[in-house]
Amino acid sequence: MKNNNLKKYGALIVSSALLLGTLTACGSKDSGSGSGSSDGDTIKIGLNLELSGAVASYGSGISKGAELAIKEINDAGGIDGKKIEAVKIDNKSENSEATSAALKLATQEKVVAQIGSATSGNTVAAVQVADQNKMPLISPSGTSQTVTVNDDGAVNEYAFRTCFIDPFQGKIAADFASNDLKAKNVAIFADSSSDYAKGLAEAFKKQIEANGGKVVAEESYVAKDTDFKSTLTRLKSKNPDFIYVPGYYEEVGLIVKQARSIGIDAPMMGGDGWDSPKIVELAGAKSLDNTFFTNHYSAEDPDEKIQKFVKSFKEANDDKSPDAFNALGYDSVYWLKDAIERAGSTKGEDIQKALAETKDLSLVTGEISVDEEHNTIKSATVLEFKDGKQVFKTKVEP
Amino acid sequence: MEWLQQLVNGISIGSIYALIALGYTMVYGIIKLINFAHGDVFMIGAFVGFYGLTHWHIGFIPSLLAAMIICSILGVVIERLAYKRLRNATRIAALITAIGMSLLIEYTTIFFRGAQPEAYPDNAVISKTFTVFGTQISSESIIILVTTIVLMLLLQFIVHKTKIGKAMRAVSHDMEAARLMGINVNNTISATFAIGSALAGAAGVVFGLYYTKIDPLMGIIPGVKAFIAAVLGGIGSIPGAMTGGMVLGIVETVVSALGFSMWRDAAAFIILILILIFKPAGIFGKNTREKV
């Protein structure tokens, strides 16, 4: 009996939900094909983010930034008089969840575009759904090449990203080493167990050689190593005037400390993998002097646009200074707004075209342009460690 | 001067291996058990030292002593809980129990404090670098070496000049005969575990001081390396463990120094394989023939 009741009620709920769905669909004025539709006075944007799971801190950082941007835009009157409505779905940091979240956003919620996910892996899982449903997708922080270009080398038409790609950081570091530090004989010490570090090292090497520098030594280590002194001693004997150490902060902290303890005074530099307060504890503030790393943005940047963002973010978030993820989430929303305005429509095809044609759009994390592979060309920020604090050093244009 | 610097690097890492290897070798010498939980006792020592320096603010030497005391208690508890009842079981049962004990310690630590790494404070000891013949020697390297030498001399004294040392040697020689002679075998075995674990605890603290980063799974690789060092020197032999540790540290450093840093860990295991094939008794081991 009980079971029967449950079935009855279940059927009732389902049918009423369906009815409601039809009514809403009827209510919307725009009934274009696929996604890219939105009802009369709101524009729906999907947020497909890692709000729980392994990399929850990335996803929630982006979410905070995006929410601030949406609030600002709505307070200023919305896009062409229409308010933005965010539909937030947690993909639990899992690829399969990211795919189904994208499907839900495209077919049920009928959002005009999706922002997310944070990691390259979760974004790639949603890219196909986006292409099939003509739903533009912007990943704020998916730095891997595979986000916009699939395995066959074809461009994923509807996929975009707000951040720069991995090899770009290596190129920027090489330019900074040759131009600002006047480095001639450089050494590379890379984490051979990470594709990210290998990609950075390769791009760095190519660019430094193009700049007329010489790579005097190339060594590698494996994540979780603790003793780097013997390899560093070998590096020291080659007398490099600059050492590039792409990798993650856990090992980099130890490398910097051990390098200084055996008397290597040369400047050292890495990528955004260095961005953690833990690096200061591991290396010690004194050892970190004369080290640099590339990052998406710095809250210390005196740029007017950045300072305005930092101020409004702090007001909205209990005086917490925004990190790179907050800034990238914020920028993704503004980029989408710009594209919708330029397209003059909320159709997926039109927004996609406008996003692909983006040129010199000024955002918090830099001025962005999109190339034919949907890679975002923008400036990178170089930070320097001084007394254990990250200090804004310079911005390098691509 | 590059090679002198590499020698200093090799001796520093070798000292740590030697301190851990001593625990392996002593336990093996007395109950013929490879105590795989030994690397995790080393990890606990590193954490006790860390809390001593950062939370209790008791300074370096008291932290070192605290780590040694807590680790020796832990060693005795492990022996009484897990190994004592297996003393007459097969070797393989005891070995598997040791691996289980190792995992238990690792994951209990992760359960209580998480898996994130911790950094030793850089003001724990006076940090200074001395330049000798163009070679940079940090005060941490000197502390490692001094700690190792002092502890080894102390160990030699205990084993050869004290009553408990005499008992340990007797039990290791022939457990049954020692029991018949009125030696309290259980207490002697506990004492061995206590001393070996205290050395591992000390190694943990100097490791943290030298390498800064400690985490709950840090004991695995140094534990395995120290085991290789013990086999290399001749398992069961105390001077063998010291020599084996130093040799392994220097070999690893030389491999990296020649530009084969990716082969460093492989080199250690190749040594283990070669030793087991050509001289299973190790450098200092006695070539005992199995009685039929």
TrEMBL record, chain A:
Coiled coil: none annotated. Residues 42-388 form the Leucine-binding protein domain. GO terms for biological process: amino acid transport. Keywords: Amino-acid transport, Signal, Transport. Residues 1-27 form the signal peptide. SUPFAM superfamilies: Periplasmic binding protein-like I. Gene3D superfamilies: 3.40.50.2300. It comes from the Bacteria. PANTHER family: LEUCINE-SPECIFIC-BINDING PROTEIN, PERIPLASMIC BINDING PROTEIN OF ABC TRANSPORTER FOR NATURAL AMINO ACIDS. Belongs to the leucine-binding protein family. This is Ethanolamine utilization protein EutJ. It comes from Candidatus Kurthia intestinigallinarum.
TrEMBL record, chain B:
GO terms for molecular function: L-isoleucine transmembrane transporter activity; L-leucine transmembrane transporter activity; L-phenylalanine transmembrane transporter activity; L-valine transmembrane transporter activity. The keyword Cell inner membrane applies. It is a multi-pass membrane protein. It is found in: Cell membrane. GO terms for biological process: D-alanine transmembrane transport; L-alanine transport; L-isoleucine import across plasma membrane. It comes from the Bacteria. The chain crosses the membrane at residues 6-26, 59-78, 90-112, 141-159, 189-211, 266-285. Keywords: Amino-acid transport, Cell inner membrane, Cell membrane, Membrane, Transmembrane, Transmembrane helix, Transport. Belongs to the binding-protein-dependent transport system permease family. LivHM subfamily. PANTHER family: BRANCHED-CHAIN AMINO ACID TRANSPORT SYSTEM PERMEASE PROTEIN LIVH, HIGH-AFFINITY BRANCHED-CHAIN AMINO ACID TRANSPORT SYSTEM PERMEASE PROTEIN LIVH. This is ABC transporter permease.
